[in-house]
Amino acid sequence: MRRGAASDTVEGGDAALVGRIAAGDGTALETLYGRHAQRLHGYLFRLLGDWMTAEEVLQDTLLAVWRSAGSYQGRSSVSTWLFGISRRCAYYRLRGTQPPVPAEFPDRRDPCRTPDEVAIDAVGGTDVADAVGRLPLHHREVVILAFVSGLPHAEIAEVLGIPVGTVKSRLHHARSALCRILTETEVAP
Prior knowledge:
Elements: H1 4-22, H2 26-48, H3 51-68, H4 78-94, H5 115-122, H6 125-133, H7 137-148, H8 153-160, H9 164-187
Helix pairs in contact: 1-2, 2-3, 2-4, 2-7, 3-4, 4-8, 6-9, 7-9, 8-9
């Protein structure tokens, strides 16, 4: 997320890291991984519904970053560029198959939890998490990127390759669907 001068410094540092990666600096890749791995893994886990598959796709993402760092032109933030690569790697993995709907989250604590997720868990987040998992993929993606990964609408649009208005529309429809799913869950015995 780009918030204030401190984030701009980190983002500028990230761009410099990408330049070093393009020059073959493996340490720069490790540093970039350290800065972004949790958010990317959280996004991939929620998108793919499987912890280990998310780990594998994160590794595929890092390999793609290593190979394509020279093509980074700075037209977007590094984090947006990384989310876009992660998304493409995930879809490559899913190509020809129906994306899995996560039945439940793993027993171990998720290191990618945000304050929003902690709050959701405190009020019975399993129903909410299950409802998000039941959304169609195009709605689940915008919900995860907006509310879990905390990306602004413009960056979500960039990651997904769609207009900002479409992001807003999908979020609106996703919220309506979540309300419907959660209402059905409350009514069901």
